Amino acid sequence: MIAMRRTLSITALLLAIVCGCQNGPESEMKGLTSRRSSAITVTGRLASNESRTSLASDGGTVLWSEGDNIGVFTDLVKNVNLTLESSCAGSTEGVFKGSATGTPKYAYFPYDADAAVTASTVSLFLPDTQIQRGGAPDMSLDVKVGSLASDDRNAGFVFDFTQKMVLLHFTLTPDASLEGDRLRSISLAVAGRSLAGAYTLSLADPSAALAFAQGASSKLSLKFDGEPQLGAGTTVEGWMFVNADVASGDKLDVRVNTDRHCVKIDLTSSKTFQMGYRYGMPLEIAALVADGRAVVGEPSGDISGLTELGVYDCGTASYLCKYEEGVNQYAVATLSDSYEFRVQNYAQGYSVAMQWPSTAAAGSNVQLTVVSYGKDEIAAGTFTVKVVKVEGQKLWLLDEANSMGYIVTKE
Fold first, then answer.
1. Which of 44, 237, 305, 390 yields a CA-CA distance of 20 to 30 A from 116?
2. Distance in angstroms (rounded) separating the CA atoms of residues 142 and 112
């Protein structure tokens, strides 16, 4: 991203090829009494030391980890689970073992027993809220697709894996204004882009882009476990996995949220994100403020005093969209297990809809789904919000991780 006057400073690591296999779900084995499953051994190799399953201390070398599993599709059964042999943990070449009927055709990492599958696809989910624990990425989100390199059962099956996600490496250097603050989260929003959510992974074409479902999130939040205390000039690291759906020139809305401040950072991507790359995201607050790209503000976390319906940006203390009689319209809907509130102006070409569960009660945390058309500054997706206040049919919902407030009504 940016240091002082630089746009997105991007350190690209092309993450390539890993191999593996896994042991199959019981459901795939039912009704196969006329066939006998047999042991399968797959060698997982790394075509480059820039691939990643777990990262070594140098931040680039990939090592297999204890308990790693991959899903394998054969010509007869789907989504078979194979497990890494313990002796291979910590190495760049792994042996995966399991049993299945048929000959392996496709493979992916990491294995998901509950994933919906077809003959050559897997349906997976990239969360828009990720947790930073310790000083390393959450490699369970590091998705790969395997290409069959050798199908000789006697010599052993080999798959080369292609990395599918982008890994963002944030390095946050606080200034004096953040001294002593507790770091809650770093968020990234890119209007109109599909950064997270439900998607379909093609196994037949490892180079294919991920196919995200409608309503994919254009915003991600990285929450910091334990809310570490910040010190001026002391760098804090965090890693976020995102879909490769950012183009050169895209506006990047980055927020740093602490217990006492919200830092709004406006950046421009100088690169088009590519699958399998790692991009450095340096956030040097003092330099960004001096350059006019960042503003350190007080987090307006108390939205209970707001009276107008709409979407409120706590970081800038302003509405991004609000209902104004005679200017636009609002609509409400009661669904089977939820409510929907929508602000719209078709003449001006925008509509923002918010949907929340009917069980929402004051003090509870619920999931809020936002669908935004024509309002690029409002991120779409599903976010965890706190029900700050309920008054009659009106609710005040606060997304603390992203410093956003939603004031909605059921009538």
1. 44
2. 13
Contact present, 281 and 171 (Cβ < 8 Å): yes
pLDDT, tens digit (0-9, with 9 covering 90-100), for 154-195? 777 888 888 899 999 999 999 999 999 999 999 999 988 999
Cis preceding-peptide flag for 282 (omega within 30 of 0): no
Asked if pLDDT for residue 25 goes beyond 50, the answer is no
Both tokens of 251, joined, read 């506006």
The residues pairing with 185 across neighbouring beta strands, listed in sequence order, are: 223, 257
Nearest to 167, CA basis, from 110, 241, 219, 224:
241
Q: Are 51 and 18 in contact (CB under 8 A)?
A: yes
Yes or no: say if 314 and 187 are a contact pair by the CB < 8 Å rule. no
